[in-house]
Specification:
Helix content: 25-40%
Number of strands: 10
Order of helices and strands: HEEEEEEEEHHHHHEEHH
Number of helices: 8
Bound molecules: zinc ion
Strand content: 15-25%
Strand order of the largest sheet: 1-6-7-5
């Protein structure tokens, strides 16, 4: 799932490549992906791309006269920038991976795609991004929050730190992958309870959040949009690395599985060498 660093890099790529270009048209192939109907997709035609930004994990493509295409890429969504499209014919609604296509006046543009059968990619054509459900409820940006804000937000929600870190209303932008990385860098158990964290632990968590997300943004920037996903994988130390050695201490990375997700961590770095109970397995045993 694209998280803050990937979405930031996509926005950066669009700022470089698309800003200043005029829109030929916005084509909608997956009707269910476009969550708004007013203004209609035809309202984008003829407008100029004036900017691109990010709210948490939401990408914001800005057009003149205050129109925004706000996109949540969900688990399997991505933005593919095309220097040229294979055909000038409009997309036809269908079951393919392309949900939306934006064509620009120099023949380039981008496709918003979603792999798999679960279609969760959501796009909104709005005059104000705050109108997008989810954007209005976002907490402070994870990369921008200072220690005071960060600490207050985390302590405002009592729960396991892994869950609280990924709650978009607490901090915006962190998902399953980078929360594993941040907790590893901060040497904290994913199951540590937020309101029991010491000031030192909170400071370490804040520093780790900045470092992990900041490094990932720097690695991603300057990459071609098509290569961003692979770059994320190569920068990870524990996430999706079950059974591989921790690059910090050499212990084997372990996993805890849940119904539809899992987390990875290093026992030596994070839990005093003790493996965490796998909730799913212990539930089966009970
Ligand atoms: Zn380790």
């Amino acid at each position: 799932m694209p998280e803050l660093p990937e979405v930031e890099a996509l926005a950066g790529y669009l700022r470089e490549r698309a800003v200043g270009r005029r829109v030929e048209r916005l084509e909608v192939a997956a009707i269910s992906a476009l969550k708004t109907y007013d203004p209609p997709p035809s309202a984008v035609a003829g407008r100029t791309v004036t900017g691109a930004g990010r709210y948490g994990k939401f990408l914001d493509v800005r057009f003149d006269e205050g129109l925004h295409l706000v996109v949540h890429l969900a688990r399997a969504g991505w933005l593919h920038y095309r220097e040229a499209f294979p055909s000038a014919a409009p997309l036809r609604p269908g079951k393919g991976p392309i949900a939306l296509r934006l064509r620009l006046d120099d023949g380039s543009g981008f496709d918003l795609t979603e792999a798999g059968t679960q279609k969760k990619l959501a796009a909104y054509l709005v005059t104000d991004p705050a109108l997008v459900p989810g954007v209005g409820k976002l907490g402070p940006d994870a990369l921008e929050a200072d220690l005071t804000t960060f600490g207050a937000q985390l302590r405002s929600r009592r729960g396991q730190v892994k869950g609280v870190l990924t709650d978009q209303s607490v901090l915006a932008g962190i998902g399953n992958a980078y929360s594993d990385e941040i907790l590893h860098a901060a040497k904290l158990s994913p199951f540590a309870i937020t309101d029991r964290l010491t000031d030192d632990q909170l400071a370490a968590l804040h520093a780790a959040t900045r470092a992990v997300l900041g490094d990932a943004v720097r690695r991603s920037m300057g990459q071609r949009a098509a290569e961003l996903k692979g770059e994320k994988r190569s920068g990870l130390k524990v996430h999706a690395r079950k059974g591989l050695p921790c690059p910090v201490c050499g212990d084997l990375v372990r996993e805890v599985s849940f119904a539809d997700s899992s987390l990875q961590y290093c026992p030596t770095c994070q839990t005093g060498g003790k493996p965490l109970a796998d909730r799913r397995l212990s539930r089966l045993v009970r």
